[in-house]
Amino acid sequence: MAEDVNHLLQMVNITKRFPGVTALDSVNLAVREGEIHAICGENGAGKSTLMKVLSGVYPAGSYEGEIVYRGEVQRFGNIAASENAGIVIIHQELALVPELSITENIFLGHELNRLGVIDWDEARRRTAELLQQVDLNEDPDTPVKYLGVGKQQLVEIAKALEKDVQLLILDEPTAALNERDSQHLLRLITGLRDRGVTSIMISHKLGEIEQIADTITIIRDGKTIETLAVDGTIDEDRIIRGMVGRTLGNRFPDRSSRVGEVFFEVRDWTVQHPLDPSRLVAKNAAFTVRRGEIVGFAGLMGAGRTELAMSVFGNQYGTRMSGEAFIDGRPVKLRNVKQAISAGLAYVSEDRKSLGLNLLDPIKRAIVSAKLSRISTGGVIDELQETRHAEEYRRDLRIKAADVEVGVDTLSGGNQQKVVLAKWMFSEPELLILDEPTRGIDVGAKAEIYQIMRRLAESGKGIVLISSELPELIGMADRIYTIFEGEITAELDAADVDQETLMRHMAPTKKGSAA
Amino acid sequence: MTGDTAARPQKRGFALSDVWLIFGRRGSLKQLGILGALVVIIAIFQIWTGGTTLAPGNVINIVQAYSFILLLSVGMVMVIIAGHIDLSVGSVAAFVAIVVATAMRDWELPWWGGVLLGIALGAAIGAFQGFWVAYIGVPAFIVTLAGMLIWRGAQQYVGQAQTVAVPAEFRQALYGFMPEVGPPTPYNNLTLLLGALVVAAIVFFQWRSRAKRKKLNAILEPLWVTLTRTGILCAVVIYATLLFGSGRVGTSFPISGIILAVLIIFYAFLTSRTTLGRHIYAVGGNRRAAELSGVHARRTDFFVMMNMSTLAGVAGMLWAARAGAAGPGDGTGWELDAIAGVFIGGAAVAGGIGTVFGSVIGGLVMAVLNNGLQLVGITTDRMQIIKGLVLLVAVGIDVLNKQQGRFSFIGIMLGRLRATRAQQEVEEISPGSQRPDPPGKSGPG
Ligand SMILES: Nc1ncnc2c1ncn2[C@@H]1O[C@H](COP(=O)(O)OP(=O)(O)OP(=O)(O)O)[C@@H](O)[C@H]1O
Ligand SMILES: [Mg+2]
């Protein structure tokens, strides 16, 4: 390929194979110096794999093709080699050590030292500087585990800045962030561009891409489809057409609203924080779910939506101080997960890797794991039934994998999410609690998941949808509860609510943003 | 895009990759590697000892002498899959043995009374340790380190550092041979009968699983695969039968071997085919996710710990029956052999991975090594060095394999080249674009 002075990076004919899968098939990518280059594509298209090739996670020799960076062919043998060249990747899953402080995390692996003795004062001073650059107002000594995901993301970027980054790779940086934190991050990335840092950003949030990207490369099934320069003419529909090869119709299915009777009710639910008994993560919460209804839970990060849901799902968060639950008017005990599952509850966690899946499982084992009783008699599992059920869900949800023997750890993020969804659908719940079910999911799959939710609701099940994406809540839910600091602040009809109204109830007072 | 049913026809021609199906589904290839290693080790010793290793007398001896280690490996693998460890098994075995021996001597318990007492005592010890692990939350490493001291001390206290003999019936019941019955043949008739039963069982189960798949319209493996597998399994069993049956008159497949085989099959079934087994894997693989799927993680922990000590008790009794007495030195270092067997058998230190069959094979590797090195006259000091190295190398290969993503020694060596050689070669090494249905698909490795 012609060497182009304008191009900071060229990846030429990259092919990467895994046993049984060709993840990348002659992919080309050209990134100009000082731009923000977005990579779009469906789940499993090969975006993360391409970035792992670039950053040396998959070393030179394990793929075919050439990486030309700053006009030279590079053969990175590991991550350290690419970092030396100024390429820093921030992975889809954050890689900070929760127990260590911000400073310790930033300098982890290349501690400032004199003769092996770490110079903490200097490290702390530099950290404070970096935190200022990323606009994060925290003490450098704060352990990372006390920071929310949004702030952790900023620490990752500070860490990259410390390494004197020239090409910053962000794999779905805003997937776990709420609107405000996302905007903050996007502003930061734009700011870095103005200082000469080139960025590659993977995201399924097309709105953001439209907002900040200069160029978009679209990947489908491991192949480069096209590279678009963002001018006025590129809109979301255009990107989607490139990603899925066709235009996508209505994103949210119609609300059919054959909403029935109230069948699930929670009253006076109060939960203590597990470590700090003086803090209540849910205060006298009360809500109802009708058959055939999708109920939305809106709230800022840390408002207590997940905590409330997990507490209802068999006391899996904190200590319950008071509260009763009723199904069809009869009180039910939800003291442990088993009771919750047999009462007909299912909870799809927002954190699929650490709470939703055993990554050692093949797809089929993962799918049946929440209701083994469905495929066993007298405690003995019928493996044929297991495979058949799993195959059914793989086809229904279009999980991208050769068969159900494939390990879930090799699936792309979006497909893992579908497996988790399948797992809880397999448990045949009456009430399905979905916590950020479309996080990290591509537009096409999102639409599919919305269809599935609607279908479940129409079959008479109740659905609780916890989401930080307000358009999703407004588009999907029939009714929305807003939660602020553990309290339900409002109950709104989704048909006539807008984002502003929701925001107002999600953060009633500006002052109350305690840590 | 992905292979739907149409892409996986029920009837297909001969494909090289189907050969691997003989040894089970995908993923069981790793166990095949260990099995291969075992065969190689046996072959080496067979040559080195001039044929003594596979002589009837010696194989009978191997089973009798090492059945307790294999038994411990079976229990240990479940503990390790669940993410724990048990260091107390040797002490528990010794303590149970001395209590049973003393009880049979002082209270004149019949042999079966002794066995029941031993099982109950092992279970009680396991319940005690399991309680600390599961419900108090002390790491199993610490609990069983304490147990190692406690039960060793208790053993010495009960036995007063003396050896206590066990009655002859107890020896015969656990350690003896099956009697000679029926017409005089060059073989032990009951061993032949046992072998025939096992062959029948293999044929029956292979046939039944095929029939069931057919009935449910599931994907069938090619017929020749089933036939070859059945053939290989039966051949191995028949060979073993003749081997065990042709020992000295009065010897047969040992009773301790039968006890062991029954327990292995039981636990292999338990771990691979029951909900309890799934729970053990789930808890070891991702404890929090398991809990959120409705698994009672604590109960599972309690079970594996209790089960382990129960089996340790049985192992102790088997040992006492073989030695004719329970003594102060019993069980020292057993935990190490058992743990080594489990890891050679492919289990992961972090939990969630491992199989009963793998551990049995791993345990057999240790047993054959012990036995073979003894036969060629290598002393304990050098034996320990060799065993240590084998453990290190076996697990090292396993770890490398995981990084490579699949099993093949060649793959490992080529993997080193990969980093340096040019690209076309890579194409040859990694089995290309293995979509579900290309015609000229090559086998793995
Ligand atoms: N280690 C691996 N072993 C086998 N297959 C893999 C491995 N890693 C990735 N794959 C496969 O490669 C393909 C591309 O995966 P990749 O993670 O790059 O997708 P992605 O575009 O990042 O998707 P997402 O948007 O869901 O994160 C998928 O089909 C995936 O199953
Ligand atoms: Mg990805």
TrEMBL record, chain A:
What's one GO MF term for it?
ATP hydrolysis activity
Which keywords label this protein? ATP-binding, Cell membrane, Membrane, Nucleotide-binding, Repeat, Sugar transport, Translocase, Transport
Its subcellular locations are:
Cell membrane
GO terms for cellular component: plasma membrane
Database matches in Pfam families: ABC_tran
| Tagged with keyword Disulfide bond | no
Domain ABC transporter, first and last residues per copy: 9-246, 266-510
| Membrane association type | Peripheral membrane protein
Q: What is this protein called?
A: Xylose ABC transporter ATP-binding protein
Say which domain of life the source belongs to. Bacteria
The principal location of this protein is membrane
UniProtKB/TrEMBL annotation, chain B:
Pfam families linked: BPD_transp_2 (PF02653)
Stated membrane topology is: Multi-pass membrane protein
Q: Where is this region: Disordered?
A: 424-445
Looking at the UniProt entry, the stretches that span the membrane are 32-51, 63-82, 87-104, 110-128, 133-151, 187-207, 219-245, 251-270, 302-321, 341-369
Instruction: List the GO molecular function terms.
Output: transmembrane transporter activity
Which regions are flagged for Pro residues bias?
436-445
Please provide the record's keywords in A-Z order.
Cell inner membrane, Cell membrane, Membrane, Sugar transport, Transmembrane, Transmembrane helix, Transport
Q: Name one cellular component (GO) term.
A: plasma membrane
Task: Name residues in a coiled coil.
Answer: none
Is Acetylation there in the keyword field?
no
Q: Which InterPro entries match?
A: ABC_transp_permease
Location in the cell reads:
Cell membrane
Query: What is the stated purpose of this protein?
Result: Part of the binding-protein-dependent transport system for D-xylose. Probably responsible for the translocation of the substrate across the membrane.
NCBIfam families given in the database record? GguB
Q: What is the protein name stated in its UniProt record?
A: Xylose transport system permease protein XylH
